[in-house]
Design brief:
CATH architecture of the largest domain: Up-down Bundle
Number of helices: 6
Radius of gyration: 36 Å
Number of strands: 5
Keywords: Chaperone
Number of domains: 3
Order of helices and strands: EEHEEEHHHHH
Protein name: BAG family molecular chaperone regulator 1
Helix content: 55-70%
CATH superfamily of the largest domain: BAG domain
Organism: Suberites domuncula (Sponge)
GO biological process, one term: protein stabilization
CATH class of the largest domain: Mainly Alpha
GO molecular function: adenyl-nucleotide exchange factor activity; protein-folding chaperone binding
Shape: elongated
Strand content: 5-15%
Length: 258
């Protein structure tokens, strides 16, 4: 069972979803520390005018249910006074920029997929996008390593929670980056297949034109001067064989109808 409560902090109001009847006051405080930047141990939760004293008490036992309203009091962390928190915040800010770059790459890939990029420009566009994806991946990994290197005391639950959230976010962005690379490869493969089809089609059209010309010439020689028929047969059959249409009656008939 899950339900939602409203928690006020100053002028801010937070809708907090509670999952399970066994959720305690401590669980709610941990959630609020993420939303308000107030450490769990510094929070004062008030419900119906009374302060919730026992962190181990289930919320349902205290009469907290769907639509209940609570208030939280406490002092926020000061990033300037907490160097480790400041480092985490800096990494999160940098990751924001990385996410915007991925958004830009995604939009350009979508343009290629929808045919908004000229065919002759697709290959170069894909190469450029692939390089940008590699750069974004390296940037995200560097920030992941920065988070891992931050020394946070076990008692600083808020900062540790923020770092964990940042790590999960970066991992999701790395997965997204990998998916974009796959889409780029698919665009590149489609371009190669299109070029092969176009080349094959052009070669077929050229062969058909050659075949029609040879058959027309052969016919004219036969009609105009039958005494050269034996020589003409040997000459033209050799040409038919050279362009790979010798004996292909259906193809020859199609050419004559062009």
């Amino acid at each position: 069972m899950s339900f939602t409560v409203q928690v006020s902090h100053g002028s801010d109001k937070h809708q907090v979803e509670i999952h399970g009847q066994e959720r305690t006051v401590a669980h709610l405080k941990d959630t609020l520390s993420e939303l308000t930047d107030i450490p769990s141990e510094s929070q004062k939760l008030i419900f119906k005018g009374k302060t919730l004293q026992e962190d181990s008490r289930p919320l349902c036992d205290l009469g907290i249910k769907q639509g209940s309203r609570l208030m939280v009091l406490g002092r926020k962390f000061n990033a300037d006074q907490e160097p480790s928190l400041k480092e985490v915040v800096q990494v999160c800010s940098a990751v924001d920029g990385g996410e915007k770059k991925l958004d830009g790459i995604r939009d350009e890939i979508t343009g290629i997929e929808k045919g908004f990029v000229q065919s002759e420009l697709v290959a170069d566009a894909c190469r450029g996008l692939a390089k940008r994806c590699v750069s974004c991946g390296e940037f995200l990994m560097q920030n992941l390593e920065k988070l891992d290197a931050i020394d946070i005391p076990p008692t600083e639950t808020l900062i540790r929670g923020k770092r964990k959230s940042a790590i999960v976010r970066i991992q999701a962005l790395l997965k997204r980056n990998d998916d974009l690379i796959k889409r780029i490869d698919a665009c590149r493969k489609s371009k190669i297949e299109l070029d092969q089809y176009t080349n094959n089609n052009n070669n077929k059209q050229q062969t058909d034109r050659q075949t029609k010309l040879l058959i027309t010439t052969y016919h004219n020689v036969y009609v105009q001067d039958k005494c050269f028929l034996t020589v003409a047969n040997a000459f033209f059959l050799k040409l038919f064989d050279d362009i790979g249409v010798f004996g292909r009656v259906e193809r020859i008939q199609n050419c004559l109808n062009m």
